[in-house]
Amino acid sequence: MCSTCGCGGEDATTRVTLVEGPEQAQPHGHAHLHDHPHDHDHAHDHDHATRTVLLEQDILAKNDLLAAATRHRLAERSITAINLMSSPGSGKTTLLERTITDIGDRRETLVIEGDQETWLDAQRIRATGRKVVQINTGAGCHLDAEMLGRGLTELDPPDGSLVFVENVGNLVCPALFDLGESARVVIISVTEGADKPAKYPYMFRTADLVLLNKVDLLPYVDFDVDLCLDLIHRLQPDVEMLPVSATRGDGLDAWHEWLANRSAATVLQ
Amino acid sequence: MARHTVGSVHELAITESIVDAIVEKIGDGPVAAVRLEIGRLSGVVTDSIRFCFGIVAVGTGLDGARLDIDEPPGRAYCRDCRREFALDDPIMLCDCGSADLDILAGQELRIVSVEVR
Ligand SMILES: Nc1nc2c(ncn2[C@@H]2O[C@H](COP(=O)(O)OP(=O)(O)OP(=O)(O)O)[C@@H](O)[C@H]2O)c(=O)[nH]1
Ligand SMILES: [Mg+2]
Ligand SMILES: [Zn+2]
């Protein structure tokens, strides 16, 4: 369904593309005409007797079912999928470029990029030589389990591989949607202010790990690291926060160690 | 609850899930009313759901249906001081300072029932 007007089929706005290289031309945005006539003058007869049908169903049941199926499919094949979430510009793509370069040949690493529009991030990943699928959500502000399922089908990751999923830059909406990922990593950067966990509690409550990025800028900004960690621990007492710099390389050993441990934990025994 | 969140697009996706789930269960026949349960700790803004429903329901049997939304308040149990208490803030803390809580209520996101004609 179109997220703008509620018309049309589900596939009209979400586009899933295997991005082969920077020379691949991106098609222009879909033209979407909203002039379909609706007939609104159907008379409702409110005196009719009605009958109550009990549904007792979770609203996100369908998403959560798809997510569970994806999680099982990944675990069976020893694939680790990491859902990376942050505000726009916190450094998700920069961290990914650096991480997959550091991993090198040690493990097959693939990427699914989620953005409303453009293939820019997919092309940055593609430049590192890794296979990458771009999901463009159009008006949608988050990935959901159905989109990730389609993205994985297109990406076709081999058994034992590591798949990074860069969610749409947004600290609100992605929080509610389980994708079937193996772990959820939330990035906050020091230029955003230490109060973010208090302002976006839902996002931080579902995180398996928080990365504090751009710590190379700490001398220049007023960011209280202890306060930020305290706010996160009020939401989740046990979650870890790793300080990193995706550009200068600080803290990346700990990040790789976390990835290795997490990968071992998510594989079906 | 004091909420300053402006409704965002996840309410649209959630409303689409509601309409899809109902149509899947009961078909395209006319619906007079829909009863939802959206807990105060669920992260979903009910005003946005109402707004989105008016758009998403067009062209389905739910067009024009009344939306009844129950908003259960939050309740939590503190594992440190072993106390149950009311909670209406998404920053979840017990008066004793502990964040080690079991959320007992307030996170509901459910379709309870529909009234069909
Ligand atoms: N100083 C500094 N800059 C960084 C660091 N990480 C990322 N940046 C810069 O931050 C800007 C945004 O980085 P991206 O990696 O594009 O951020 P993103 O989260 O992928 O952004 P969206 O996909 O648009 O949400 C770029 O100019 C990066 O060079 C870091 O550790 N330190
Ligand atoms: Mg990016
Ligand atoms: Zn307590």
Question: For this structure, what is the CATH homologous superfamily of chain A?
Answer: P-loop containing nucleotide triphosphate hydrolases
Strand content of chain A: 15-25%
Alpha-beta content class of chain A: alpha/beta
Order of helices and strands of chain A: EEHEHEHEHEEHHEHEH
Integer-rounded radius of gyration of chain B: 17 Å
The outline of chain B comes out as elongated
Helix content of chain B: 10-25%
Q: Which segments of chain A are poorly predicted (pLDDT under 50) over 5 or more consecutive residues? A: 1-12, 29-46
Order of helices and strands of chain B: HEHEEEEE
Mean pLDDT of chain B: 87
**What is the overall pLDDT average of chain A?**
87
Number of self-contained structural domains of chain B: 1
Helical segment count of chain A: 8
Largest sheet composition of chain A: 8 strands, mixed
What is the compact description of this entry?
Chain A has helices spanning 61-76, 92-103, 120-126, 145-155, 196-199, 201-205, 225-235, 252-266, and strands spanning 15-18, 51-58, 80-86, 109-115, 132-136, 162-166, 183-189, 209-213, 240-243.
Description:
- The complex is a heterodimer of chains A (269) and B (117).
- By secondary structure, chain A is an alpha/beta fold.
- Chain A has one domain: P-loop containing nucleotide triphosphate hydrolases (Rossmann fold), CATH 3.40.50.
- Chain A contains 8 helices and 9 strands.
- Chain A has helices at 61-76, 92-103, 120-126, 145-155, 196-199, 201-205, 225-235, 252-266; strands at 15-18, 51-58, 80-86, 109-115, 132-136, 162-166, 183-189, 209-213, 240-243.
- In chain A, strands 1-5-4-6-3-7-8-9 form an 8-stranded mixed beta sheet, sandwiched between helices.
- In chain A, helix 7 links the parallel strand 8 (209-213) and strand 9.
- The longest helix of chain A has 16 residues, at 61-76.
- Chain A is globular and about 70 Å long.
- The two termini of chain A are 39 Å apart.
- Chain B is of the alpha+beta class.
- Chain B has a single domain (10-116), classed as 2-Layer Sandwich (hypothetical protein PF0899 fold), CATH 3.30.2320.80.
- Chain B is built from 2 helices and 6 strands; from the N terminus they run H-E-H-E-E-E-E-E.
- Chain B has a 3-stranded mixed beta sheet, covered by helices on one side. A 3-stranded antiparallel beta sheet of chain B has the order 4-3-5, with no helix packed on it.
- In chain B, helix 1 crosses helix 2 (46-56).
- Residues 1-7 of chain B have low confidence and may be disordered.
- At the A-B interface, strand 2, helix 1 and helix 7 of A face helix 1, strand 1 and strand 6 of B.
- Strand 2 of chain A pairs antiparallel with strand 6 of chain B, so a sheet runs across the interface.
- The site of guanosine-5'-triphosphate has 17 residues of chain A, from helix 2.
